[in-house]
Amino acid sequence: MTSRPNLPASLETIRTSLQARAILDVLAKEGGTNSRFLETWLATIGLTASSRTMADLLDRLEKDGLVRLEQVDTYHVVRIRRFGGEVASGLEALDWIAKPELPE
Hints:
Blueprint: H1 8-30, E1 32-34, H2 35-44, H3 51-63, E2 67-72, E3 75-80, H4 82-89
Antiparallel strand pairs: 1-3, 2-3
């Protein structure tokens, strides 16, 4: 494992990586949901993200072809794309997203 210094920038990189992993895991099971649910889910598992941080993260996931965003009223509806499913399952990897925990 790569040694990372205990600096705020490094911790934020790790946090973002874990948040993206959690979002992909939920979407892989559910297929799609809304951004408010994802914010609540992240807070529940200890990876709280502000609305601005969540919007930036979802935009980044969409830019990388992992999810598709649709605006419905005040919500972003988030749906997983095929590549997002492949990253969620561990078949593909992106360096900024935590790898899935594989069964032993």
